[in-house]
Design a protein that fits this description.
88 residues, mainly alpha, 69% helix, rod-shaped
Length: 88
């Protein structure tokens, strides 16, 4: 017996069919919440991998451009003339 809002106790029915339906409904709701959480987790994981890929590709491109320009500057440098020593 469970006391009601007005203080009177009312008998509760332990209907197994109703309890089974309520449990099934609760499990369905939890499963839906888990799927939503899993979908959010997968989206975040995918975004992280995309960010890392873009970061690595950008870094490789920057190093390529940097070394390419350094090689161009070395090729364009003129050799400095060495002073010739004239003997007495």
């Amino acid at each position: 017996m469970i006391p009601g809002a007005d203080g009177k106790s009312e008998p509760t029915e332990n209907d197994p069919e109703q309890l089974s339906r309520l449990l099934e409904l609760e499990l369905i709701q939890k499963r839906a919440a888990w799927k939503n959480a899993s979908a959010r987790h997968n989206k975040l994981r995918t975004a992280s991998f995309v960010f890392l890929f873009i970061l690595i590709v950008g870094s490789l491109f920057a190093f390529f451009v940097l070394f390419w320009r350094m090689n161009e500057q070395r090729a364009n440098q003129r050799p400095t003339p060495t002073p010739s020593v004239s003997g007495p």
